[in-house]
Amino acid sequence: HVKGSFTGAVANKKGLLEEADGGTIFLDEIGKTPLQLQGKLLQFLDSKRIRPVGGNEMVSIDVRLIFASKVDLLTLCNEGRMLEDFYFRINDFPLTIPPLRDRKEDIEPLARHFFDSIGEEMGKKLLGVSDGAIRRLEEYAWPGNVRELEKIVKRAIILADDNTLIGPDTLAFDMDMEKREAFGNEARSLPGMIRELEKRAITDTLARCSWNRSAAAREMGISYPTLLKKIRDYHITESSE
């Protein structure tokens, strides 16, 4: 706005677009933008000029805009929640990023980055994160994508003591999401679900018993040979935690 354009406007002030002149602006959740604002952005994208509030002259701006959305923008157009002209104007070079569950290879580097950065920010002196914890993260379905991964990592760091290694038992998943991950959103065979739950129960019991197989067998109420057979069948090792 310009000085004197409204009460309290005691000096000229540049807006975000003008401040970013010669650079880049990232606008997230563009699908939630009101139609009126979409129209104004469309006008700017076409002309590369703005007029400050209270001003009489147009100001030329050279800025690159990057938009992001979690919802399908074409669907919003069909529902009347996005202007078609605006959609086609911002859709010059679309990049589709798959959900985290479809790019398992990204989970470990992202998790280790969050463990390092959040741990340093919170002043926690941790020994790192175990391979078992990484595998547990890779097994999860991540309905909340990267933001959920960051939340789970932060929660684990809060729960962990200094000078300890983050293990799978420190990863406190939300119970509802844990069930969703265990059973999946699609129908699965009952034997498959039983095997998955049994393997997890055996692994958790062994970890709780410090991998004393005799103690774990007694706790689960099965014979020692039966436990050994199940460990072989499920390929359970200490690194499976």
UniProtKB/TrEMBL annotation:
SUPFAM superfamilies referenced in this protein's UniProt entry, alphabetically: Homeodomain-like, P-loop containing nucleoside triphosphate hydrolases
Keywords for the protein's UniProt record, in alphabetical order: ATP-binding, Nucleotide-binding, Transcription, Transcription regulation
Location of the Sigma-54 factor interaction domain: 1-158
Any GO MF annotation of the entry: ATP binding
Any Pfam family matching the protein: Sigma54_activat
PANTHER family per record: TRANSCRIPTIONAL REGULATORY PROTEIN
Protein name as it appears in the record: Sigma-54 factor interaction domain-containing protein
Native species: Eiseniibacteriota bacterium
